[in-house]
Each structure stands twice: as C-alpha cells, then as structure tokens.
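Continuing from the previous page of notes. For each protein in this section, the sequence appears first, followed by its structure tokens. Read the first protein now.
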Amino acid sequence: MRTFSRRSLLAGLALVAASRPLLAATAEKLSIDARDEPVAVSRYISAGSGKRPAVLVLHGSRGFGLRLRAYERYADALTADGIDTYFVRYYTPADEHAIETMHSRESREAYETARFDAWAARVSSVVATILSRTDSSGRVGLLGFSLGGYVAAVTAARDERVNALAVLYAGMPEKIAPQVKHLPPMLELHGKADRNVPLAAGEALVRLGKSVGAPAEIVTYPGKGHGFDFADNDPTTSDAVGRVSRFLQARLNPT
C-alpha cells in the first residue's frame, strides 16, 4: 500500500501552479447496441495516429453531468498519452428514472446490487464494439469512479478482454466477490476518510486481485473523503490523475 506523501503534495502543488488542464477535445456522440437499451457513449479522440488503445470511463451514481470537468481531466491526460477515451453512460432510461426517485441509501444500494450484472453486460457490449474498430490496438482498460468503480470491477472480472482496471473509491460487490476467478492488473485510489465507500472496500478489492494472480496496488490519501479528486485546486487531484494515466499508459501501451 502506498500513501499520498508530502513529496507528492509538493509535486502536485507545482503542477497546479504551473498550469491548468486544457478542456478535452469536443466529444463524438455514439450509440452502441446492447441487449436491452443502446448505450450512450462520448468519445474523446487522442492525437495519436494508427491503432490506439482505449479506456472506458464509468461514472459515479449521479452520472457525468454533475462534475463533467472532473472526469474530463482524465480524458485530457489519457488522450495526451495516445489513448482514446470513452465516457460510458451505462444507465438505461429506466435506471435513471428509478435512481432519481429513490430517497434512501438502503433502497438505492438494493437497486444497485440487483443491477450489477446488467450494467457489466452493457459495458462489455461497449468493449466489444471498441475492439472491433479498425483503429483499435486490441487493448482496452476500464476506469471507474465510486459506483462506476464497482461496475468496472465486475466487468473486468468477467471479461478477459479488459487489460487494465483503475478504480477510485470503490470495491467489488460482496455477493460477486466469491465468484471471481480472474482480474487484470489494477490500481485503486482511496481517501482514508471516505465515509461513502470505506477504505476497507478498496483494500478488499486489491486483496481479491492478488488472490487471483493479478498485480494490484492501492494508493491512499490521508484525510481525504469520497470524490477527493474532483476538487479543482487540490494537489491530490493532479496526483490522482497522474497516477491513473501513468498506470493505464504502462498497461495499454506495453513496450
């Protein structure tokens, strides 16, 4: 386990002081067929040419609309590294309606537990479509936040076409964890003061990855809560974006 350090803090401050991230390129809107409803996807194209790897970004429970720019920081970093980035809206219209009308955490968590299988299948449909593109290098990673991190973990456990998994403040659903026989190389980032998804959930996911033979690492951030990387002027944001992009670059563009 690694912990965000004073050295990382100073590096992050330097990055924040030196520049602000550019807006990600205008996204191309796509609709990808799935078993139930089409999946809405936004594609951020990298500056690279030829065949390129891809990363699928999976949103938290409130979708991309709440803090789109926070997600786009990752798209900026990934596309700069030659990785096409896809924002995957794995909710169906029925999911959106159901979640909007739920007012208790218990009802929302029960709904999510019942939907993990379907959401993972929808993400796998996107994986298949991306890998069939003529510009695909054949390598794809998943980047999930909170609820999207759980969906990413389930998808990666079931779809061996996924080459890398990066998760922020999430874990593996408890009912699914005993079934897991495979996971790709993974990176988990988690705030130690997270009250929404306890650090123990991230630690359990990393232990699960190691138990099935996957290289797995967790980086913790003292004093940081849920969604710590969405802050615009916090050096931990730069640190998180940098760690995730370097990890995915190394796993999807192996030398």
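Done with the first. The second protein uses the same format. Note its length before scrolling.
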Amino acid sequence: MTDRRVVIAGGHGKIAQHLIQVLTADGDRAVALIRNPDHISAVTALGALPEVIDMETASVDDVAALMHDADAAVFAAGAGPSGGIARKDTVDRGAAVLLADAAEKAGVKRFVQISSFGAGEPVPDDAGDTWKAYIEAKTAAEEDLKRRSHLEWTILRPGGLTDDDPTGHIALSAPPLERGTVPRADVAAVIAALLQSPSTAGKTLMLTSGETRIEDAIEAV
C-alpha cells in the first residue's frame, strides 16, 4: 500500500479507467480530470476523485490548483479517432503541455506521459492526414517534455491497443521495438509500476505484449 495521490488527465479514457482501478487497489488515490460531467459517476465508481475541467480551455493555474497535493501526474488524454485534425493538436499536444506546465507550477515532479508507437519518427509519406496530425502532435508533446528539467518524466509509447484481458507479461525497451499490440489493462499496470520506479525517469520506453513479467521488465530498463 503506497498512499500516493495521482492526477490523471483524460480520467475517463479506457487506459485511465484501468489505471484508476490499479491505483485504488494499491491504496493510492486517483484524481480523474474529466471534461464531461456525465462521467463523474463512472470514475467515482472506480474509486477516483473526479475533477471536471476542459484541458483545451483551462489555464495553467486552473489545472495546477487541482494538483497542489499530488505525488504524480499521468497524461492519458487523447482526442480519439473522431476528434478531427485540429483536436489532435489541442489535446494530444496542447493538453499534454498544459499538464506539464501545471505540474511544474504545483511542484509535482513525477510525470508519466502516454505517447504512441510512431512518435519521434518520420511520418510515412502515404500516411493519412489524421494519422500524420496525431503523430506530429505526440512527437511535439514528447519534445516539450524532454526539455523540462524540473520534472521526473517517463514517456511510454504503447503499440496497438486492445481490450483483451491483461496478461501481466510485456516487452518493454528503449526504441526501437518490433511493432505489436498490448492490452490497455497491461498498459495501465505498467504505468502504475513506472510511478513506483523513479529510476525510469528521463527514459522513453516502447511497450507491447511479450514474455517478461511487468516487474521484471521495468527493473531491466
């Protein structure tokens, strides 16, 4: 039991919902930043404290006020497949930068950012406009985070996300890593473990399903 307070941007997302359950089971308190008030009951039922805030319009002070006593922050927000090209920038980049700014202002050092396979790499010429915008936004968010010396950040790039049952076994390494898929529940378990692994600060890690237990994989990196 660790008794930490973890602020999660995108608190009603699929990965975030799994993460809330993992954190709650470990004795931690998840603070779920959500845009839609209709999601309050859902995240509360999972064990989180809901805070309604629109990360596309909020100020740094607005977000920092919700992080004043937090031990860590996780960026798990995303515009989603129907979000449109413009929202790839305002959410996948802009909201990530906002959360990092707020964490610095609130003195929250530990920061885990969910990115994606493909980030930090050239976008193929035949990629669609939406995918191109998404990868460019994720890459820009990563580059912003890497410039911050006051945050103990870890960037996690999961492969293709599935809703399969968790396996507890993964492949985790610095880039590159062969493409593959990974259940969202395993991504959440990895994030929770990273939050307890300060030695992973300053690392960019690729994640897919694999043969190694999560704890062993994190120790190895």
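What the second structure shows: The radius of gyration is 16 Å. The helical segments are 14-25, 40-46, 60-65, 84-106, 129-146, 184-195, 214-220. We return to this in next week's lecture.
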